[in-house]
Amino acid sequence: MSHKTLGLSESLSSYIQSISVQESEVLVKLREETAKLPGAVMQIAPEQGQLMSLLVQLLGAKKTLDIGVFTGYSSLVVALAMPEDGRIVACDRDENCTAIASRYWQEAGVSQKIDLHLAPALETLDKLIAQGQANSFDFAFIDADKRNYDNYYEKCLQLVRPGGLIAIDNVLWSGRVADPSYSDKRTISIREFNQKLYQDPRVKISLIPIADGLTLALKL
Ligand code: CA
Fold it and tell me: Domain map of the chain by residue range?
């Protein structure tokens, strides 16, 4: 897994960051604090966050899903891009990481936009479906355990409205998806998931080779 764009030289990567990333102070602070943690590579790259922010604004999104919160960067970047009445359902089961997330959401003044569910994400998504919230979300970001990607995707496809967007992270899996010498379960899950999306008539897709690979799936 990588939080820098794969296959770019250090200098080109630095150049892109210096000439395109316009990160607010609170995002920089969160990124720097997270960089000191053992799971630091799980944080999305700032240029990816910025792309997501732009997409959320293009969609006019007011209701989104964040599946796999970690220390909260993706929720924060989306919350900052949404209007005052925007709402995020954030799913994670890790109390320690989400405590960091909550602190930054508070500091950025967006905590009222984020509803954190500390539970397995599939349970939360099933609850939302049972509550009749299908077809009501504008945007969903999937970045949790890779072996459940297909399950998260299927739930998101129910919850997102037609014309809404599902963004799926780590679809290049450090390049291992294209290297047949890797046959571990997580690599196989992502490979099979990518193949499925390629053939899925319910969505239109684009695989953006930013960071560790981000697939955008527009629900038809
Ligand atoms: Ca990720």
Answer: 10-219
Q: For residue 83, give the nearest of 109, 62, 54 by alpha carbon.
A: 62
**Beta strand residue intervals within the chain, DSSP E:** 63-67, 87-92, 114-118, 137-142, 160-169, 203-208, 214-219
Beta bridge partners of 169: 214
For residue 171, the CA-to-ligand 1 centroid distance in Å is 9
Q: Would you say the C-alpha torsion 59, 86, 109, 106 has a positive or negative sign?
A: negative
CA of 141 to the centre of ligand 1 (A): 10
Q: How far is the CA of 217 from the centre of ligand 1 (A)?
A: 16
| Centre of ligand 1 from the C-alpha of residue 44, in Å | 6
Name the token pair of 204: 């239109």
For residue 43, how far is its CA from the centre of ligand 1 (angstroms)? 6
Rounded average pLDDT per 10-residue block, the chain, 220 residues: 77 92 96 94 93 98 98 98 98 97 98 98 98 98 96 98 98 97 96 98 97 97
For residue 213, the CA-to-ligand 1 centroid distance in Å is 9
- What pLDDT was estimated at residue 7? 85
Backbone angles phi, psi at 207, to 5 degrees: -95, 110
* CATH code of the domain made up of 10-219: 3.40.50.150
pTM: 0.96
Distance 131 CA to ligand 1 centre (A): 28
